[in-house]
Amino acid sequence: MSWHPGIPAAEVHDRGAVAVEADGLRLALFSLEGEIFATGNICTHAFALLTEGHVENGCVECPLHQGLFDIRTGRAQGTPVTKDLATYATRIEDGMVWIDTE
Ligand code: FES
């Protein structure tokens, strides 16, 4: 376990998707149905930041070639994306999001 503080949970819920860095990783925090999920923020297809994409039905759509990833599991939903995103555990403590980068 390697927990790192992110940003206030309220900011994630307000903005829906927020880019953060922790442990040298570029991560995405997503607000989904009252919970916060953390994934890698760089698309596994080419270089695009998923926090600049569109969130719908529990998935984020990459802004570059419209690849879809399930936010909860990181699972790639089909071409052009074939490699899943890494996902990271989160917890809320004193209103802050903490992310486990292990
Ligand atoms: Fe994300 Fe191509 S860079 S689908």
Describe the structure.
The protein is mainly β and 102 residues long. It has one domain (3-100): 3-layer Sandwich (Rieske Iron-sulfur Protein). It is built from one helix and nine strands. The protein has one helix spanning 9-15, and strands at 3-8, 17-22, 25-32, 35-40, 54-56, 59-61, 68-70, 87-93, 96-100. A hairpin with a 2-residue loop joins strand 2 and strand 3 (25-32). The longest helix is centred in the first third of the chain and has 7 residues, at 9-15. The chain is globular, with a radius of gyration of 13 Å. The mean pLDDT is 97. Bound molecules: FE2/S2 (inorganic) cluster. This is FAD-dependent oxidoreductase. Residues 3-99 form the Rieske domain. It comes from Mangrovicoccus algicola.
Topology:
Elements: E1 3-8, H1 9-15, E2 17-22, E3 25-32, E4 35-40, E5 54-56, E6 59-61, E7 68-70, E8 87-93, E9 96-100
Antiparallel strand pairs: 1-9, 2-3, 3-4, 4-8, 5-6, 6-7, 8-9
The protein binds FE2/S2 (inorganic) cluster.
Domain Rieske: 3-99
Protein name: FAD-dependent oxidoreductase
Organism: Mangrovicoccus algicola
